[in-house]
Design a protein that fits this description.
Distance between the termini: 80 Å
Shape: elongated
Oligomer: single chain
Order of helices and strands: HHHHHHHHHHH
Mean pLDDT: 76
């Protein structure tokens, strides 16, 4: 079937959507390749872009239409890249292609050769994306450690202090001191842990390539930065709001927002279940906060602690 042999209207509309999607993603990958500079990622991204261009030409042969890329979609994914990095941007974009692949299968009987395109989408691009080497992903565990510990420890601390002290300024001061001290401690622990781990010589390398050891200083920096950022965001409501209960409510809301964003990031980059990750992190953080809040009530009532 070619442009000289018109396809049915419904199928043609679907092919035109596929065609524009492929040329748009071709330009997205080229733009990401430019951002990658001279790193090894540049060639991988350019190769993926070439696959997308080949798909565009396949559809062009069927429709005979010359289509321009979607500029808004290109701008959107470049913004996503700047905020979350290359791997997230690519995997987030590939998630959108899962719907396209389902539609591919519906029209496959009407379009000879479409099965080859589906195979490329599912196998070739997946293999190429796996080659992307992004530093921040090697240290996701360090970021998780910093965020998890800060969310659990600081939301619990602030909740406990809220009823015990009932003074936003005092609560903020105690929260900052506790949070910064804990961040330095956690960063130091991550440095020592990473320095001790190294790649295991007893374990066979994955795919014939032994995993690169993480840098202890970088691991500690990621943990420390994640912890400090969480401290600032969680304590901020107590610095700007006069009501200690309102400040605690906003802090809990901020913690939930952080968990949503990070759980979604992990679900995209690591392919894990978003709902499960979110419920786990939220359940632990909010559970500790509730217990600490009740503890603060006990401290204030029975030990006579007051602002």
């Amino acid at each position: 079937m070619t442009a000289e042999q018109p396809v049915p209207g419904r199928v043609r509309d679907a092919l035109l959507r596929f065609q524009q999607g492929e040329i748009t993603e071709h330009h997205i990958y080229l733009a990401l390749a430019e951002k990658a500079g001279e790193s090894a990622n540049r060639k991988v991204l350019a190769d993926i872009g070439a696959v997308e261009l080949a798909h565009y030409r396949f559809f062009h042969a069927l429709t005979g239409a010359d289509l321009a890329p979607g500029r808004i979609r290109i701008a959107f994914y470049l913004l996503v890249y700047r905020i979350f990095g290359i791997t997230f941007a690519i995997r987030f974009m590939e998630r959108g292609e899962e719907k396209a692949q389902r539609i591919y299968r519906e029209v496959t009987p009407s379009v000879p050769g479409l099965a080859v395109v589906i195979h490329d989408e599912e196998e070739h691009e997946k293999a190429l994306v796996a080659l992307i080497d992004e530093q921040r992903l090697k240290y996701t565990g360090s970021i998780v450690l910093g965020l998890n510990d800060a969310l659990v420890e600081l939301t619990g601390t602030l909740a406990g202090l809220t009823l015990a002290l009932q003074n936003t300024r005092v609560i903020a001061m105690a929260g900052l001191i506790t949070g910064i001290a804990a961040a330095l401690s956690m960063g130091s622990a991550e440095y020592l842990s990473t320095k001790a781990e190294g790649p295991s010589l007893s374990d066979p390398p994955s795919g014939g390539v032994r995993p690169e050891a993480r840098n202890p200083v970088q691991a500690a920096t990621y943990t420390l930065a994640a912890y400090i950022l969480a401290v600032i965001l969680l304590v901020a409501p107590f610095l700007v709001l006069g009501s200690y209960l309102l400040a605690l409510g906003v802090t809990i809301l901020v913690a939930i927002i952080i968990i949503v964003i990070f759980a979604f990031y992990i679900s995209v980059t690591r392919g894990v279940d978003f709902r499960g990750r979110f419920l786990e992190m939220a359940g632990i953080s909010l559970g500790v906060a509730l217990l600490s809040f009740l503890l603060g009530l006990v401290v204030r009532t029975f030990l006579g602690v007051s602002a």
